TrEMBL record:
This is LysR family transcriptional regulator. PANTHER family: GLYCINE CLEAVAGE SYSTEM TRANSCRIPTIONAL ACTIVATOR, HTH-TYPE TRANSCRIPTIONAL REGULATOR. GO terms for molecular function: DNA-binding transcription factor activity; sequence-specific DNA binding. It comes from the Bacteria. Coiled coil: none annotated. Keywords: DNA-binding, Transcription, Transcription regulation.
Length: 283
């Protein structure tokens, strides 16, 4: 009959207890009771056939056999844990958080990345929160001010966009926009005001529809519900496929940027650097 398997939990308890030489402190680190630590040590001693500690009123001391065994057991246990962590990281899914307004730019790049590097897996979470904290994610795309240490992806630069079906036969002039429904990416209409003020437009907006995100406003424009103002980078594909037309060459920068933050290299899954490099490349 083969010998019982080595109780690895008990090995861990032995290593921690040998470091503290105190059952109470060992129990605190292991997040178990002092009695549970004693039972784990006893199970390992039973497996080995000799005592690991001498018990005294003031605490514990290692026996000669325990002291002799500890260095090799500690080294091999740490090597096993390291190997397991590396194996886990090599198959880890990269957790990416991004604002919904960036989806038109981000999703095509993630699809292309999956085709180019099929072993790189990204779990995407969308949010309307522009927090600069990574939380439990490996990387995050941010909108607004670029925090220190972030990668700058692109500046927000706005221009009007409209479905081709709504364009008049003649060249569209700024004042002609007054006859359309204005699709606002924000509740306060500041994006449209910024562009119109730069053009010194002299008309009042008569019809408006407000949306929570730029992506929703762009989708409404594609469906022919009116004219929106959109970031030129976000609508690159829509313009190329003529789902939208940008009738004016004039653009205006809002001061906001799309940026990327990532987990420190020592805490990151191995393929995070490849994702960051892919997202940072132009085009």
């Amino acid at each position: 009959m083969s010998r019982r398997s080595l109780p690895l939990n008990a090995v861990h308890a032995f290593i921690v207890t040998a470091r503290h030489l105190n059952l109470t402190r060992a129990a605190g680190e292991l997040c178990i009771t002092q009695g549970a630590v004693s039972r784990k040590i006893a199970s390992l001693e039973s497996w080995l056939g000799f005592a690991l500690f001498d018990r005294h009123a003031r605490g514990l001391t290692l026996t000669a056999q325990g002291a002799s065994l500890l260095p090799a057991m500690k080294t091999n246990f740490e090597q096993m844990v390291f190997a397991a962590e590396q194996a886990s990281k090599s198959h880890a899914v990269i957790r990416l958080k991004a604002p919904t307004c960036a989806m038109r730019w981000l999703v095509p790049r993630l699809v292309a990345l999956e085709q180019a590097q099929p072993d790189l897996h990204v779990s995407l979470t969308t949010t309307v929160d522009h927090s600069t904290q990574l939380e439990n994610y490996d990387a995050a795309i941010l909108y607004g001010s670029a925090p220190a240490g972030s990668w700058r992806l692109f500046d927000e630069e706005l221009t009007p966009a409209i479905a081709a079906s709504l364009l008049p036969a003649a060249v569209l002039r700024v004042e002609d926009l007054a006859r359309y429904t204005f699709l606002h990416p924000t509740a306060d209409g500041r994006d449209w005001r910024l562009w119109l003020n730069q053009q010194q437009a002299g008309f009042s907006i008569r019809r408006s529809q407000h949306f929570d995100t730029m992506d929703l406003a762009i989708s409404a424009a594609i469906q022919g519900f009116g004219v929106t103002v959109a970031d030129v980078t976000l609508i690159e594909t829509d313009l190329a496929m003529r789902r939208l037309i940008a009738p004016f060459s004039e653009t205006v920068k809002t001061g906001a940027v799309y940026s990327l933050i990532q987990r420190p290299a020592e805490d990151a899954p191995p393929q995070l650097a490849a994702l960051v490099a892919w997202l940072r490349q132009p085009g």
